[in-house]
Amino acid sequence: MTRAIRVVILGKVQGVWYRAWTVEQATRRGLSGWVRNRPDGSVEALFSGAAVVVEAMIEACREGPPAARVDRIEQHPADPPAEPGFRQVHTE
Fold it and tell me: Is residue 89, in this structure, part of any structural domain at all?
């Protein structure tokens, strides 16, 4: 079963290589989607793929890269991305 979910990751997640880490981890897992910084200091990502793999990615995001501190993750249903692959996009 395929699942697409948009997450907002809050805590110390900007300036600690969180986006690059997310691209690496999501690509390794074969997920599609994107990740970006948000003006409020959080990081937002869209993960799409096998439901079990999406859940594993969200769990990995709770830790993030070594310099990060994740306080909480908000999850929102989403439509799958229009393009395959996982990439970093500009802050919106």
Answer: no
Residue 51 has pLDDT above 80, yes or no: yes
Range of the domain at 58: 2-82
Based on the residue annotation, tell me whether 6 is a catalytic residue of this protein. no
In a domain, 88, yes or no: no
Q: Active-site residue among 6, 28, 36, 37?
A: 37
Please tell me whether the overall predicted TM-score, pTM, comes out greater than 0.85 for this model: yes
Question: Nearest CA to 87 among 36, 13, 48?
Answer: 36
Q: How many CA atoms lie within 13 A of 70 on its CB side?
A: 18
Do the domain assignments include residue 92? no
| Number of compact structural domains in the chain | 1
Which residue is catalytic, options 19, 28, 36, 38? 19
pLDDT tens string 9-27: 999 999 999 999 999 999 9
Q: Is the pLDDT of residue 92 over 90?
A: no
Tell me the CB-side half-sphere exposure of residue 14, using CA atoms within 13 A: 12
Q: Does residue 37 carry a catalytic annotation?
A: yes
